[in-house]
Amino acid sequence: MTTQDLTPTTAAPACAAAAAAGRHGAGEDILYKRLALRISELIQHGTLRPGERVPSVRKCSGQQNVSIATVMQAYRLLENRGVIEARPQSGYYVRAPRWSPPPEPEMYRPVARPVEVRVTDLVMQVVKAGREPGLTRLGAALPAPELFPMKQLHRTMASVGRRAPVAASSYDAPPGNRALRVQIARRAMEAGCTLSPDDIITTTGATEALNLCLRAVAKPGDVIAIESPTFFGILQIIESLGMRVCEVPTYPRDGVCLDELEARLKCCRVRACVFTLNFSNPLGSCMPDEKKERLVRMLARHKIPLIEDDIYGNLPFSGARPKAAKAFDEQGWVMLCDSFTKTLSPGYRVGWTAPGRFRAKVEFLKFVNTGATASLPQMGIAEFLQNGGYDHHLRKIRRLYASQVQHMTEAVSRYFPQGTKVTRPSGGMCLWIELPSNINALTVYERALAAKISIAPGPIFSAKQKFRNCIRLNCGNPWSEAMEAAVRELGDIIRATETTVNGAPKPQNSTSTLQGSSKHQGSRKLQTSSCKHQGSIKLQPASAIFEASSL
After folding, report:
1. Cα–Cα distances in Å, from 88 out to 56, 61, 92, 184, 358?
2. Rounded to two decimals, what is the model's pTM?
3. Please, what are the domains in the chain?
4. Tens digits of per-residue pLDDT, 325-339?
């Protein structure tokens, strides 16, 4: 690996003067600290980046005209400060910046009453605008196309089509392709579910699965319990069916608050629940297994169906795949929905549902709704799953999503205003960002779009367009310098829209970001939180690592 040259092209070495001072009595003590400060500044300014090798001891000694002992002292100081690290038989490398994760949003507490949904107009504006060419796409929760195994899938589908051209061109009436349902049933064991192929109905994506399940158990005017915030697609389905919602407070890490849900089951006369329990969209929350079991038992006791959207369940960042609530279903009240949109191909539009005791009704609705799911994509995915390519692909994208979420979180902490809060998902590909309360997410969305950056504004995740100071960012794109530049520009846009409580423009010198001072920006009450800020993120600049008094 090549190393950066510490010698600037336009000036003498930074330590030359110090070396002269050392020869006149200042000594090596000051010299090694100045060398350490210079190297830390190169790291801070990006000349030396995290993971890159710093010049060898001998090379640095020659470049800076200092002794090897001085370089060794400087490198030890940097290592003790956590700026660089020694690797056996390899040299010294720049460590990733030390930082504290940003504070998390608090649970939002919507009013405990049924409300009508009014989001479709706003959602469609956002969706249509997000299709414009040339955008940096931080809005739609979709992986970048290059993350999908497109070549393998296309080869598999072509092979299947050649071997079974009649079947590939024919209707495969509900419940759908049997080979695919066999593979889905086998994979469901990883989620703790015991399903037979006959329990499963294939659908045109998870959206149709959710739609069919809702139509099977509820009618216009009925009340559906949902998470708050929740995926705007669920809100659109409910709105299109003329149903109402009861928004349930949801913890950013552990999902739906079950005590609040139980209270709402009675006061709101809930007919069904639609929850994403594993790595929800937009919060990224994952309900612990013991809470899932309690949830299933609670709803079975009240005879209320749970429509479980498990589309992100296969995307944990580490460890085993979390169980689905369906794993605890003994009476058939859980209607499990999933698809391959987030893991294999959104364009194939292949999903499925295991609707329990409502299977016959869902199968009938599927038949009268679309007749059948496209045959060739079902056949291709079935063979891809059978050949083992899916497991290898999942391991790859789980690592990528984990890395991309980490990069996005760090970038938000660097470039967004002080007072910003960020979720800490353990899977999926979304980050929910709560901005200071005096920032309007829709204004940020419009200005970002003008700068060719798409985001998802918070109001589209609420039946009544709440969360007006929140945004969702997609972490499905590989991290790059261009991506970081877009987040930096988005941070500039957010700070430019920031105003004081009375609406006056914020002073121009108030441009502190999360990485700056650890002091709070006051005690402003966020729209979605009543708690005080938990502090700001501290990244270690050179001046903070090496205090002037230590030099």
Report:
1. 13, 20, 9, 47, 61
2. 0.76
3. 16-96 (1.10.10.10), 148-390 (3.40.640.10), 393-545 (3.90.1150.10)
4. 999 999 999 999 999
